[in-house]
Amino acid sequence: MEFLDNADAPHYSDVLSPLPSVDADPEAILAALHEVDWSAFTPARDLPPLRARLAELEQRSGVTHAHRFVTERLVASGAVLRHPDGHPAEISGFALSPDGRHLAVGSWCGDDYEAGGILQIWEVPTARCVNTLYGIEGGVGWPDHGHMIQWSADGQRIAFAFDTNVVGSWDPFGPSTDLLGHANVTDGYSRPPTFAFAPDGTRAHITMWSGRAVPGCIAPLAEGPLYFNDDLDNPNVAFLAEDLPAAVSDLMGDEQLALERAVWSRDGARLLGYGDGLVFAIDVVTGRMSWFAEADSRGTIPAWSPDERLVAYQTDSRLVIADAATGRRVTTLPNHPGASELSWGSHDGVAQLAVVVPEDNDADATPRVVIYDESGTGYGVEMALKEVSRAELDGATWAWAPDGLHAAGLTETGQIEVWSLGKAPDRLSVVESPENAYGLLWGADGVLVAVGPNALRFVQTASGETIGDFAFMRAPGGSRPLEIDGEDIGENLRDSGEPAAGPTFALDDETWAVAFESGLVIAPSDRHDALDGALAWAVERRFAWPVRWGELLIVPDATTAARQVDSPLAEYAEQFQRQSALETVAGQWPPPDTATLDDLFQFARSARAALHSGWDHHVSENLRYAARLRARRGEAVEATELLESIPTQVDYLRGCADVAMILAAAGQADRAREVFSFTEQDVEDELDRYNVAFVASAVGGAHAALGDTSRADAWFDRARAAIEPETNSGEHRLSVAWALIECGRVDDARAVWQAAAETPSTFYSTPFLAYLVRTGREDLTREVLTFRYPTAEEWQAEGWFDGWEAVEVFAGFGRADLIHSWAEVYGSRYAYEELVERAEANARTADSRPTAADLDALADAYAALQKTPRTRRERPTELLILQAARCGHISAVLDLLPTLRADDFNGRASHAFRALWLVTTGADVQTW
């Protein structure tokens, strides 16, 4: 593969003047390189021509000592090894630098939101990543929002949206990973704001709901931070005019103008914008709208010519070319079929407009690209381009060459066509694009870049050669090279000076590799040749230098890497050696099913340890349900242990009453009294308006089960009186009904739920139904299933279980008969046969799970999980845990649970409890 600038013949500075002619032999060039004053070597000036000269030398003589000598000099002066991987999620935005030599590519967050996103800088002519900003809070931009990455006019600064609604700036070639400044001025708006980066790279116009007709302010980005309501009286913050022109106000009414796209003109004088079906210009000095015009409100983004002299926009069935400074129409093309994309090019100062006519157009015209000059004279290029589905995306399917004589298009068939333009357009070449590509850019030195959700492909147009092909978010099977006990040590090397996102990368779909900045590489011996296609030495975070022109220190594994001199892995040497030994005896997955239900209970109980107090309500509720489950199994001691783990006092007292009620009903009155040992004053101290019905019914049920009828009556009366129609009425009713049923007062329970005036939340009605089924209360099950309000209006006629929740419960319990009963009431509109089959299968296998088929299904799902990017494994892992729990494979559940987040209840803790419900009942609902 060539690794060239493909620029004109190099022009050497005085520093490189000792170099002989291109035809000199390699030894002469090496000798001359030894004479170079390397202390005066300036990469921005000297590296591109030197790189081009050595590329020519390689074509004649292969890689020589001259190549190796320069590589050693560059590494000694600070060049670092870069790999191209690391995106935790799909690409969320990209932007080409004004000179076309660098591409910025950003991504949003993966499963771990706190880990952030990344922003990569690629050198386009060499197709290599040269710098990366890791751990961007909240990720770059937002899915389906465009123009979230912008370059300054001189290409030395980048502005981007991050952390939902913040805009910051960064030096993409500087040594620091800190932002230069950032502004959070949108008052908590939950999406990225439209913004326009000033050409000088020091400030931006940021849309904000400021109460002004043209919302937004001009905020400094060269220093910061700047926060809403704190610093907006800062003299460096400027607002646009408060009033819109009268004609615009008439169109807008009381609404503020919502900017969908904004561009700051390169001369710094104007903001060029589009939004709410208007295209307009705003004078930056006065802050006032200097002109506006009605444009197409269907999402075709207006386009400004490279010199910002003209603007093109679609309106109704007309295409308009106007003067960008005054808004005066230069050309109007009536009866135009419509445009999905507008793009300006320029040749010898003459502007040319490419109009992409989509397949779905207003005139049933043949899809094509039409090229117009500013007078409206045009010609067609017969190619059907892919239509990007969302106007907000950065994607564009037409890319002009800088010379204005050539262009490329991304076709609907997934190919890239390169054309020579003119009155007789000529297709020069066709290459394949990455899968699902939606963006095409023509960069410096004739290099095209095709962008897909998880891919970049760089193509040299002169030769048609792919000079870089990169897929992101790949997940080769097996352990990562730096993994110890499931944790990738490479991601923890920030303190060692390594990139925060870790040096591990996917060399291909089947191979993990590691590249440290120092040049230490871990890769299989048969894959060394592939490293040159992925890695590069980055010089001053701006230029790429081929790794094949020097020597890398390549080792086969982490154990060997840890033993190298100055290895960043040195402290882990023994751990890697032990891990390697363990991997040689590791078995297949799922593991042998040796774990017990007690092990799962214990894991669920201990999962609260990593949770902060904000999760106490969820923890308390689930521990209380788990204690109920233990009590129903007759395990009084174990139930008490769970109760003692409940962090909130009111849930502890309620749980004690629940457990006492269940134990007493099962004949363990003495045990019940031991649990139900608190005083009534203890209960009174914890009651408030919202929990009286919940707590009083539990206390009443415990008294009733223990034979204290008078106290039970008093507490149940109090519980019924506390059912409030405006506050959790359905939930209160079912909690009271549960306690009444549990202590044998079924008629009273029926009266409570039949008095309901609204449908309870499924978070309560479904567990209540599951409770009735599990405890064998067949008549009550069918009664609740078919319940109608006594005075049902039409909107109430569907009952409590019109959705799938009840059917899922019945299938989990193996009760096909109840599914048929449900269908008699609700099911004529649904295809439920698959759930009947599942219920029948569950009934057959309840005593023999997991079956051989279950084990095969688990193994297949686990293999698919290993092929899923680590940053997107959270949901598949959760589903696999539930799959293992449904078939009763507790060891598989316990093997997977530690891989979920420990500090979020919805991760490890929640799925430990859900697994408990499934293993013990077959239903994915809390166990009443």
Secondary structure layout:
Blueprint: H1 26-35, H2 43-61, H3 65-76, E1 80-82, E2 91-96, E3 102-107, E4 117-123, E5 128-136, E6 149-151, E7 158-162, E8 166-170, E9 181-184, E10 195-197, E11 203-206, E12 217-220, E13 226-227, E14 238-239, H4 246-252, E15 261-264, E16 270-275, E17 278-283, E18 289-294, E19 303-304, E20 310-315, E21 318-323, E22 329-333, E23 341-347, E24 350-357, E25 368-373, E26 378-381, E27 398-400, E28 406-410, E29 415-420, E30 426-432, E31 439-442, E32 447-452, E33 455-460, E34 465-471, E35 483-484, E36 487-488, E37 504-508, E38 511-515, E39 520-522, E40 536-539, E41 543-546, E42 553-555, H5 558-562, H6 573-584, H7 597-606, H8 616-632, H9 636-644, H10 649-665, H11 669-675, H12 680-684, H13 692-705, H14 709-721, H15 729-742, H16 746-754, H17 762-774, H18 778-785, H19 805-812, H20 816-825, H21 833-845, H22 852-866, H23 874-886, H24 890-896, H25 908-921
Parallel strand pairs: 9-13, 39-42
Antiparallel strand pairs: 1-40, 2-3, 3-4, 4-5, 6-7, 7-8, 8-9, 10-11, 11-12, 12-14, 15-16, 16-17, 17-18, 19-20, 20-21, 21-22, 23-24, 24-25, 25-26, 27-28, 28-29, 29-30, 31-32, 32-33, 33-34, 35-36, 37-38, 38-39, 40-41
Helix pairs in contact: 1-3, 7-25, 8-9, 8-10, 8-25, 9-10, 10-11, 10-13, 13-14, 13-15, 15-16, 15-17, 17-19, 19-20, 19-21, 22-23, 23-24, 23-25
